[in-house]
Amino acid sequence: MLIRLTGGEIIDPVNGQSGKRDLWIQDGFIVDKPEGERADKTYDLSGCIVMAGAIDIHSHIGGGNVNTARLLLPEQHAAHLPRPADTPLSNAGWSTFTTGCLYAQMGFTTVVEPAMSPYNALHTHLELADIPIIDKATLTILGNDDFLLSLIRDKTSSDMMDDYVAWTLASTHSLGVKVINAGAAAAFKENVRAFSFDDVVPAYGVSSRKIVKTLQASVNRLGVPHPLHVHANNLGIAGSADTASVTIDATEGVPLHLAHLQFYGYGTEGKRKFSSEAARLAEQVNNNPDVTIDVGQVMFGQTVTISSDITRQFLAIGNANPKKTVIIDGDGNGGGIVPYRYKKNFYGSLQWAVGLELFLLIDDPWRVFFTTDHPNGAPFTSYPELFELLMSRDARDAKTAELNASALELTTLGSLRREYTLDEIAIMTRAAPARLLGLKDRGHLGSGAIADIAVYRRGRDIAGMFREAALVFKNGELVVENGKVVHLRWGKALRLKPTPDKAMVRRMQAYHEERYGLSLDWFTFPDSAIQRDEPFAEVSCSS
Amino acid sequence: MKALTFTLRAQPEERLDLSALIPDRLDGMSVAEIAKLRIGTSRRPALVGDIFKIRGENRSHIIFDGGSRRFDRVGAGMSGGMLFVAGDAGAQAGRRMSGGMLVIEDNCGPHAGSGMAGGRLEILGNSGDYLAGPLAGEMLGMEGGVLIVRGKAGHYAGDRMRRGVLAILKGCGDYAGSRMIAGSIVVTGRVGAMPGYLMKRGSLLFDRRPETISPTFIDCGRTDIAFSGLFDRYLIDDKILDKPLLGRKPGKYGGDNAVLGKGEILFRMGR
Ligand SMILES: [Zn+2]
CB-hemisphere CA count at 13 Å for A141? Predict the structure, then answer.
């Protein structure tokens, strides 16, 4: 089937100037205009803008911790009643089903679950396979696991380290590696409750810095397209800007991605000893081309924080709202679920402003990524409002009027007049994520790209425009029309597929037998465990 | 003015959500408007007029002439006025009510008075499980008001209760006052196993010694306190009981020491 999209304004910074041109779709891909052929179906997109499908690089949409959060907060499901008449599972608004539909309605077509514990890989992939429409991917957590810490302690060769990382990527079917508060979860088991970049894990004698540098080097040598994804130490604490700062300085010429930098943008100035250091961090990011960051913007309202940073979550128990939590001191990272309500008080206002400062002060839209760290800063359903804040200073001014003035005085937000252009939005949410993740087949609208296309009706209401896409195509199939899902299909999970070293497989077998008394087969699984036709798609490594 | 009366035409064929038919929400509505309110919960939901004949004017005095186990959420969210059900009610009768008076003349289902914060709810028959308790995931059960069950109550009566008075006159199931935070629960008649299970604070007041109790409660012997006489008088003055409950020097257990342990079970001695 040949589809022609005509009359729309194409926003595709990778392939040149924005402007009106036709787009052609054939067999799921964008193609050059076929000579002498007529379209089977033509869409008139006058008054619309056309972008590639958006890519979310950091959103907790599935896996053990997400599921535990659902169990902890059953009342969130009741909040979605009365049920819309004709969706399955509509009484559970937080289901995999709604996750896929809600993302697609906003024009998002690929989403990365950034924190999959290796032993949760099967559960995570089963859950992701149940999210309709969009493609998914995962990042595997390493860095608090006994095996890796032992390798570092024993000064094992870098080859062995690479074999272990490659084996983990292969056996968990993931797209990259994440490290979460490196070493802190291992130290937590020894009753350590505060842990910084140069602190040392008891019993292993390795520092957080050493763990990060080891993994960063391995990921780089293996040619994993996505740089090591770092959730730094001291998240959310006043003065955490210093931790972020030393972490940024530690890139040393090798790429590194810092997750949800907003949660590290805090200094210790002011009456409450809680202030914004966003301007300093933004400048540091601007001056260090090795580093990419995503923001983790805070928006106001009820949410739940879901993190494998057990140290942080344990310390946050007292802030839980409603007052209930789950803390799992599990293998490797463990994790914690702490519900939280962001209020328009001093702290909430400051956090909100810090995120926006980072967005507006980091010059290069190729290196700052659009996230709320769903659901930690806000649910992903708040993205439309966030687009509006970035694209309209009037919207920001209107919002600041509702917030705590003394908090905003500690920030530079009032002086920032920048407004994101549509081209910059397209880079930040399409082109740059595709490049960061090594997905050459998407993030742009050039010939040969997968036909993941989002069409928005231009209007004065920016949030409305991004909340309900006029049309969304996934692999050339029309899935959303006028903000409503019109067709359900199953996307794939994108993974690297390095061939694991045979000696490492034997070593992992022996390790699992000895440590858990269980065969390695309990922890790994074949593709056929996911009951979908072709549940995975491969992304290639760069070397 | 005559009471606004909903006369049941026939037993409904689906569960009904009657939370729309309370004084607060019907104030100022015409009979025709009321008849068009949607109360069914199925794919083709029934309207008020399909189920009831409507008569009367007084929006603050409502009567359901005839009840059903399918009448869910009767009086839910009401904050004033009077509402009578001449018959049975389903789940969540009087849920989150904050004022006024609700009377169910027969039996009702689970979660009656769930999270109620004020007003008076009387059930003349029996009630189901989770009387006054929270729905799944909610942190608090009953937060105020008076809830009286003249018959029996099911399991977990007063779960996570925080304030108010809950009285059950013909005995209750297991785990009465489980996870209680504060407030008072009166039970006359036989109490099931493990009353006060994981209660932090609050009072369970019985007319007899409970038969099985968690080992994390401590027998405190007899107590000579003014409270028992005062509370007995309140129960009679408020027409909840017609004779004293605890008497002088009731027996006492303290617990549940598996949690905070500041709760108490007081009971009449000598039976
Ligand atoms: Zn995250």
Answer: 31
